[in-house]
From TrEMBL:
Places the protein is found: Cytoplasm
Keywords for this protein: Cytoplasm, Endonuclease, Hydrolase, Manganese, Metal-binding, Nuclease
Catalytic activity: Endonucleolytic cleavage to 5'-phosphomonoester
Presence of keyword Nuclease: yes
Source species of the chain: Thiobacillus sedimenti
Enzyme class label: hydrolase
Stated name of the protein: Ribonuclease HII
InterPro entries documented for this protein: RNase_HII (IPR022898), RNase_HII/HIII (IPR001352), RNase_HII/HIII_dom (IPR024567), RNaseH-like_sf (IPR012337), RNaseH_sf (IPR036397)
NCBIfam families reported for this sequence: PRK00015.1-3 (NF000595), PRK00015.1-4 (NF000596)
């Protein structure tokens, strides 16, 4: 029997969904996306990006960019993450994403349990990427944009295997970090990276 498709709440035209990608990795920026879907141009198959294959995410990302009423992907850099911590950098990336829409949303729904400080009426939605279509769309755009960035980073620094683990602290990544030290896109404030740097100073 075919598995039934997941239908998420779309909401009115002025509703904006926001989600991030890349809070946990040891390298690369944190990215956030803001999406305002057009109810007149529905997109089937939207759901939490982590529950989709890479091919499905790419296909849906193309449809979101084509059919959404407005969308924007923004980031906070590694330098900003190290300067203000990952939580504040994530909030900054979300602020930039909504500000970059080119139109003011009526309401912003943010995946998770907190919202950035901003002027828009907003609400945090726990597991929103599996409940609200606009948040699911934002999760897909943020994830595909960050994966593309990490793919380019892999080409620049192939010894770390970024294309394999996307910067997360896997055994392969940690071994490469110990063997080769940190590259400019590693987050110096994160403990595994800081430990490698401190050991390099000692020896």
């Amino acid at each position: 029997m075919a598995r039934p498709s997941v239908v998420l709440e779309v909401g009115p035209l002025g509703l904006c969904g926001v989600d991030e990608a890349g809070r946990g990795p040891l390298a690369g920026p944190v990215m956030a996306a803001a999406v305002m879907l057009d109810p007149a141009r529905p997109i089937d198959g939207l759901r939490d990006s982590k529950k989709l294959s890479a091919a499905a995410r790419e296909r849906l990302a193309d449809l979101i960019r084509e059919r959404a009423a407005a969308w924007c992907v923004a980031e906070a850099s590694v330098a900003e993450i190290d300067a203000m911590n990952i939580l504040n950098a994530t909030m900054l990336a979300m602020q930039r994403a909504v500000a970059g829409l080119g139109r003011a949303p009526d309401e912003v729904l943010v995946d998770g349990n907190r919202c950035p400080k901003w002027a828009w009426r907003s609400q945090a939605v726990v597991k929103g990427d599996d409940r609200v279509a606009a948040i699911a769309a934002a999760s897909i755009l943020a994830k595909t944009a960050r994966d593309a960035f990490m793919g380019r980073l892999h080409e620049a620094y192939p010894v770390y295997g970024f294309a394999q683990h996307m910067g997360y602290g896997t055994a392969v990544h940690l071994d490469a970090l110990k063997a080769h030290g940190a590259c400019p896109q590693h987050r110096r404030s994160f403990a595994p990276v800081k430990q490698v740097l401190d050991q390099a100073v000692l020896f």
